Amino acid sequence: MLYHAYEIQRSWMNSVSSMASISASIMTNPANPLAKMGLIPIAANALDVLAHATADYAKPAFGITEVNVDGTPHSVIEATVVNRPFGDLKRFRLDGVTDDRPKMLIVAPMSGHYATLLRGTVERMLQKFEVYITDWADAATVPVHEGEFDLDDYIDYLMEFLEYIEGVTPGQRPHMLAVCQPSVPAFAATALLNQHKSPATPATLTMMGGPIDTRESPTSVNDHAMKRPIEWFRRSVVTTVPAKYRGAGRKVYPGFMQLSAFMSMNLQSHMMSHYEMFKHLTAGDDASAQATKDFYDEYRAVCDMTAEFYLQTVEEVFQKHSIPNGTFEHKGEIVDLTQITDTALLAVEGERDDISGLGQTKAALKLASGLEADKKRYYMAEGAGHYGIFNGSRWRDKVAPVVEDFVAEHS
Questions:
Q1: What is the three-class DSSP state of 81?
Q2: Measuring CA to CA, which residue among 252, 255, 250, 267 is closest to residue 301?
């Protein structure tokens, strides 16, 4: 019923968006003699904001066509190199640049948003690396006959992707960068590859704003996960994909619920962003208004995640604290973090991160007790919130150089 109710609401909101957009276009049409009179322009701008706020957003394209390297523009070639039911492996490389550049696997979150949320991360890393990224599927589009997908499968996908990347240039070990939630499976995959002495063991692992130990500086996200038993989440937020989708019948945690949760955390901030958009439009500052629109076009494009992945993550990461307690298992095998001896670790945190608090990612460095001290590094991005550590000017100018230097040191 939950998903059906959402579909009805979405249909209604799409109608509102269309009507607002049409009305704004009529009011501002040059052929309209009243277009610039009185309150008409202001009303049109308000309708424009309403149309944007109520629109439905599909999966965006990466759309990275060119990157400047040392002042020289290079065309970007995007390709899907591994196709799997629950997520593909995409590769981005610069046209005309040799294949001996270091290989970087960026692990995108499976947390309600598409991998395109990391477009800025990919663009910046392309200056130094051949970039691969996990392009996770919307669970609503994956047919039930493809089976389940849980945290163990996520780890398997990462190890398979790393093996593929290492196979492209045998002997050249890949690097891995995990943003937010995937810091946990990336950390576990790294430990397993170290345990098994795999040639695909990453040379470096960078974890950014990840919930390795959520007992450190717990945030409202952590508190929410701890307040209720896992059965509450199973009953309250898991629903079934309706018949109109390819994944009909699959149990999922819907993306629209994840988005609602994150929006409600900072509702005043989001409302102010739209008010600022209105003011920019009224002042004729179309560039600033468009920047806000572009952000929300991406932010409000959401996808579902499988129920089994979501519930296992809540239980193991946020409730049982299996990673810091040393009890986390992958398909019956204990993930021994002390076996990480051949992968250098970088932990990055944002000073103002309200999703993964300070100390949660840094905890990984202590847990990897078998790793030499000179292969560990911690960086705290001053003034950065959660999104600021992987996107925007702080990411480009402050965090990315730290990542590049760390990888260069341990390549």
A1: strand
A2: 255
User: CB 368: neighbour CB atoms within 10 A?
Assistant: 25
Q: Alpha helices of 114-182 — where are they, by DSSP H?
A: 119-125, 151-168
Dihedral, CA of residue 25, residue 30, residue 31 and residue 37, to nearest 10:
90
Backbone φ and ψ for 72, nearest 5 degrees, come out as: -105, 125
Regarding beta strands 175-179 and 103-107, do their DSSP bridges make them parallel or antiparallel, or are they unpaired?
A: parallel
- Of all helices (H) and strands (E), which one includes residue 189? helix 183-195
Query: Phi and psi for 51 in degrees, rounded to 5?
Result: -60, -40
pLDDT 10s digits, 173-222: 999 999 999 999 999 999 999 999 999 999 999 999 999 999 999 888 88
Measured distance CA(91)–CA(131) in Å, rounded = 6
* Contact yes or no for 390/399 (Cβ under 8 A): yes
* Structure-block tokens of residue 360: 């949660």
Contact 362, 378 (CB under 8 A): yes
Query: Are the C-beta atoms of 348 and 208 separated by less than 8 Å?
Result: yes
Q: What pTM was computed for the model?
A: 0.84
